[in-house]
Every structure is written in C-alpha cells, then in structure tokens.
C-alpha cells in the first residue's frame, strides 16, 4: 500500500506534523496520526524512526521522537527524544494476556481506592473504641467479645464500600474534574463494574447483619444506607449533597450518632447481654465526634469548588468563601480536642489524666501548626490537610476508650 503524500494530506485539512531528519542508511517513517485543524483539539503526534545500520547488523536501535503539547493556535511543540534498545516484539506477544496475579493486583488496588480507605480505617477504629466502652472489666474482653466485634465490623465494611460506590457512581462527571484519580473517574474501573461492586456490597452488608440478628446493628446499617443514599442519589427530593446544611447533617448523623450509639448498644445488649445504659464516656464520644464531623463536612468541599459550581452543588465554600470556611473548620477541630482534653482531666485516674491531656494537646498543636501553613489556592495543599484530619481522627481513636 502506498504512503499518502504529506502535501496532499495538508491540503485536505490536515496540519503537517513536524518531523525530525536523521542521517542514516535506511529510514522508515511511521506517521501515527495527523491532527485536523480544529482549535479545540490537543494534538499529540508520535513519529517513530527505526534506524537500521547495514554496516553493523549487531547494532540495532529504535529512536523515538515524541511531540507533545502540540496545540493550536500557538503551535507550541515540546519534543522528547529517547534512545531505547530495540526488543523483539511480535503480534503474538501483544495478544498474550496479563498474568492473573497482575490482574487481581490491579483490581484490588482499584477497589482499595474505590471504598475511600481513609474513611474505612477511621470508621473501623471508631467502632472499636465505642465497643470497648461497653467493657467494665478486663475479663469482658473474651472470644465472645471479639466475635461480637467482628459481627459489627464486617457488615459495616461492606456498607462503607456501598457508601463510597454510590457516591462515585452519581458523581462520575464531577469527579472527572475534582478527583480524576478515583477508579471510576480515571477509567481504572468501568461503570458497570462499579455498579456490580456497589450493589453486591449492599446485599452482603444487610445479609451479614441479618444473619447476626442484632437489632442495634441492623438499625445502624439501615440508617447509614438511607442517609448516604439520600446524600448521593440524583432523584427528586434526594441528592442532599446539593444543600450544604443537609450534606453536613448526613455526615454529622452517621459519624456522631449512628456509628457510636449502634456499635455500643450491639456490644452491650446483644453480645455482653447487659441492660441498655448510656455512660458519660459515650456522651463524650458523641460530643467529640459532633464537632469533628461538622469540621469534616465543611472542609471536604474546599478543594472541590470548581466541579461543584459547574454541576450546581452549593457547598459552604461556594457560599462563604474558602478562607472563611477553612478557619471555621479549624475552629471546630480545635473545639473537639478541647472537649476531649477537658473530659480527660475529669478522670479519677492520674495516669488517664496525663495520657489524655498530653495526647489531645499534642493533636491540637499539630493541627494548628499545619493550618497556618496551608495554601488555600493549592488543591494539593488543602488535600494534604484534609488527609491529615483523617489520620488524626484515627490516632485519637486510641485515646477515646480511656474516657471513663
């Protein structure tokens, strides 16, 4: 088949791609793509030169010249030259499927980010911390207690995957702008695969909860599912994330009320067979998580203003401004640590006073120090601070069970 003349292609509506001239014995030119003259397309052309030396057959290299960033109307072209040793390659090699272990590894990696791991870790630790509040004696931590703990952790793990999945499914176009690294937005997982994972996780969550037979656990799953479905699903009267107050209410209700109360009642009434009784330590965790969850609810939308505005999502940042909302969030986090510090000092045990006092004070100082160095114009900087908030919540969970 003859190679089309470059001049004729240019006359028919194609821009000639810049080429490199190499002095050699034999040059084969493969024109990978010609970009049409449309100003809104970004051109990326690739021209490969296989340079074959007839004088020295042992020396055989491919020199690849890649032109990137070729855009109209400024015609700025960046070229990167790479010398790559030529490897034997055939169509048979291209058809060989990936190793099954590599496929599974890639899938598990995508699933890991699909379920928002930082949220799953923090929720798991909160569940463990509140479950330990039902323990009155060391002897209560028995195989029966550990079994009861697994009964609440496993269904909520699948519920976490459902919550993250339904949010990403209905936020797919927004995430392509705000969070292009997520598995669905980046194409690492297909939309159909996302639907299958989300629906399967919901079924497994309720299935494990129903098999357990614990009504506090079942009600916790039902409330969590209902709230986060209303938060994400785009149908009339739902999609509560459009309203900043409703969005904050969902986060507050699940993290400050549903998770602590239902986990505690499951361990106290179903596992340990004790009468329902709310100790002051449970009210302390509810108070701490109230301030902290409100801070999270307001902070999470600060780096997402661009996509939220484009798709009509009214967040606190869009209404009040990023700087004001950021420092309101910092105030809520500091109030949460202040409440924890004061409650720790009311303990009758000196060593609990010392550990909790120092622990919460250190968290408050670290938070304040990082907050002062945040560049609100940098999405990466705000995102780093947001991840710090989740890490600090996870470490605080080791101090919460000491509240007595």
Automatic annotation (TrEMBL):
Topology of the protein relative to the lipid bilayer: Multi-pass membrane protein
Regions annotated as coiled coil: none
Pfam families for this protein: UbiA
Family matches, as InterPro entries: AtHST-like (IPR044502), UbiA_prenyltransferase (IPR000537), UbiA_sf (IPR044878)
Sorted UniProt keywords: Chloroplast, Membrane, Plastid, Transferase, Transit peptide, Transmembrane, Transmembrane helix
Localization of this protein: Plastid, Chloroplast membrane
GO cellular component, one term: chloroplast membrane
Claim: Metal-binding is one of the keywords in the record: no
Family: Belongs to the UbiA prenyltransferase family.
Name of the protein: Glycinol 4-dimethylallyltransferase
